[in-house]
Amino acid sequence: MIKNENLKNGVIFPRGAKNDAYAKYFIGQSYLQGLVADSKIDVGVGNVTFEPSCRNNWHIHHDGYQILLVTGGEGIYQEEGQPARHLVAGDVIVTHDGVKHWHGATSNSWFSHVAITAGTPEWLEPVDDIQYQKAEEDFK
Amino acid sequence: MIKNENLKNGVIFPRGAKNDAYAKYFIGQSYLQGLVADSKIDVGVGNVTFEPSCRNNWHIHHDGYQILLVTGGEGIYQEEGQPARHLVAGDVIVTHDGVKHWHGATSNSWFSHVAITAGTPEWLEPVDDIQYQKAEEDFK
Question: Could you say which of B12, B38, B70 has the minimum Cβ distance to residue A94?
Answer without folding.
Answer: B38
